Fold each of these.
Amino acid sequence: MERDDTTGGVDANGAADGARADGPAGAVGPDDAVLTALASEIADAERVVALTGAGVSVPSGIPPFRGDPSDDGPDPVWETHDPADFHRRRFDADPEGFWTDRLSLRETMYGDGAEPNAAHEALATLETRGHLDTLLTQNVDGLHAAAGSKSVVELHGTSARVACDRCGATRAADPVWERARDGERPPTCDCGGVLRPDVVLFGEPLPDEAFDRAQAAARRADVFLAVGSSLTVRPAALLPEIAAESGATVVVCNLGPTEYDERADYDRRADATEALPALVAALDG
């Protein structure tokens, strides 16, 4: 399947004994009864899997790819850049222009740099304490790894690396971005092949290995958390359903509506930077 791209948002809800719980937007605290019920399920679960989307990284200053322009947040990426400029066909036909536009996109997304926020840190804490088995992410910003998460499956790749389109060798991205800024466009590998960001471009399928790992994790999950994703981008959007079909409790945590709201066991509009630290606190309690 070809990927589309990530979108953003954030939500978490819950109910005891498998009952659906709907909650309004607003702050989430460790005394929230719904959160307490969810924490109990997670504490009893053998395997918990999380899927994150762009909404987890928006509080770090990284704009979402889609959505409505907002007065109090960054404009969505595809409001200011043309997705066609980042299609595989563009890379093949005009690698110099592709890299020029990619530099502009990188500046839009990361500016002077982005740091992990409280949501990234909470997920890393859940893993460290044995409450999170696998972290699946649609994001390419590398902030989960920067926060200390170890068991991360980057479904769409990572901007922290570049890869040679000829030999497949990968290397750290920052020195290559500097070469591109200095005029080497496109930058090339030692073998003479053209380098590219190690991310899934429009018109390319997700790497089989990454999505196979994601599906296997979803099938094994007792609890599946979908955080900061509108769950519209396939095939990643299929993962909550895969988990549910295997008997998992499915949790949706997103600021806006998602494609899975009506089927989730727990569903509430909430900011991930509030909901996830509150979940950690509830587990501590």
Note: The chain has a mean pLDDT of 86.
Amino acid sequence: YDQIWLGSYMSGGVGFTQCATAAYTDNILDEYTYYGMDYIKDKYKVDWKACNPADKVKPTQDVVNDIAGEVTLNAMEQYEQFPTLMEDHFGGSQRAGVIAAASGLSVGIATANSNAGLNGWYLSMLMHKEGWSRLGFFGYDLQDQCGSTNSLSVRPDEGCIGEYRGPNYPNYAMNV
């Protein structure tokens, strides 16, 4: 058990990636998120600075695909344009977390729906893996961050919707 936890913690599991991401990648995460905010303002007329419930976008799969896809592809292009940035966000785990966080935030803010935001996160992870083949390093593929099969269903044997998750929600990697 301890070895599994340490592997998840040290090599790209939710714990390490999300604990370090906010401080370590702050400006980059901001840049990708602001790109998403500009995109939803231009395309969907949602102003994140002056939130109005009437302006929210209906949370459909097409909207998730559009916003998360745009933010993810922009971020991946930025990483490729600046190779030292890609090297600095090591092993893929931080890149995956940063890109997915910006995508999920953008979708969640546009729709005011946490499940749509969660789907934006998972879609970004899948696009990242499709584009660059891996999410992590040393054989760790962040299986606990790429769980789109349960993001919209209330099926207790597979996962809970965002509002039901709490600090004691199980780590998927430890249930394999």
Note: The mean pLDDT is 75.
